[in-house]
C-alpha cells in the first residue's frame, strides 16, 4: 500500500513528462538491469515509445556503445551520470529486476540506491497539483507514525511488526511528503495545504499516550529510531548504508520547515538542530540530500591528512636545503671526505623519505577504515 501511494503521487508518465523524457526514463529502467543490444532495448519499450524519432539520439546520450566482438553483438551500457535517474518506484519493476538494479547501482555508484534514489516531487500538470495532498495528509502521518512505532518498540524475541522493507518504504513516503512541503514553500504554491496548514508538519509534534511507552510523537519516535540504528547498525546489511543519517536528514527538514518542530527537536535531539544550524550558516539547505556520518569522518580525515602532508613537504624542503648548504660548506674537503659524507646524507634522506611514505600509507589505511 505504501508503495502504491508513492507511485500515485510521483508517477508522471501521463501527467508531466514529455515523450522524450518518458523514453529516457524507460531506457534507464532497462539498462539499469544490464547491458543490452539495440534490438533488446527497442523490444523492451512500450509500443508508443519504440517509434519515437529521437530514440537513437536519447540512447547515445545516456548510454555508451561497445562494438561487436567475435560472436557477441554490440551492446549499450548506461553512463554513470544517468544512474542518478534510476526510479525505484517505476511501475514496471518486478522484484527480481529491482534487486538486480539495486545491486548494479551499488557496483557502479558505490552507494545504496535505497538511500540515494529517494522519491521526489516533480512538476505536474496544473489541474493535478492537488494530488500532493495525498502525501501530506493526516492519514499518511498516522500510517508512518505507526510503522515507526513498531520499528522502535518491537520485541527482539519476536518478528517485527514493521519489517525492514516496510519501514524503508514508510521513510521514503515521509521523504516524499517533506520534499513536497519544501518545493511548495519555495514556489508559494498552496496545493498541498489543507485549511492553511500542512497536516504532516502541523501534527508531527503531536503527542499520543502509548500506555507503557509514554507520550510519543512522530518526531520523538524518529529520534528513538535514529538512535537505535546508530547503535545497532544492523539494517539490511551492515555497511551498505547508514539509516540513522537518513532519519537525521528527515528530522533536520522537519526543523527547517516548521518552527514548532524545531523547538521540539531542541529538547529531543539537540545535535540535529545544531547540524541544521551549521548547514544554514554554510548555505547548504537547498535539498533533502544527506551525507552519511562515515563519509563526514572520511572527509575530515582527508583534510587532516592533507594538512599533515603539507607539513611534511615543508619539512622535506627544509631538509633538502640543509643538504645543499652542507654540500656547499664541504666543497673544499678532500674527495675521501666527500665519499664518506655523501652516503650518510643519502642514507638520512632515504630514511626521512621512507618515513614520510610510511606515515602517508598509515593515514590512507585509517581513512579507508
UniProtKB/TrEMBL annotation:
Residues 314-325 have a biased composition (Polar residues). Pfam families: WHD_UBR1. InterPro entries: E3_ELL-like, UBR1-like, UBR1-like_WH, WH_DNA-bd_sf. Residues 336-346 have a biased composition (Basic and acidic residues). One of its GO terms (biological process) is ubiquitin-dependent protein catabolic process via the N-end rule pathway. Keywords: Metal-binding, Transferase, Ubl conjugation pathway, Zinc, Zinc-finger. Belongs to the E3 ubiquitin-protein ligase UBR1-like family. This is E3 ubiquitin-protein ligase.
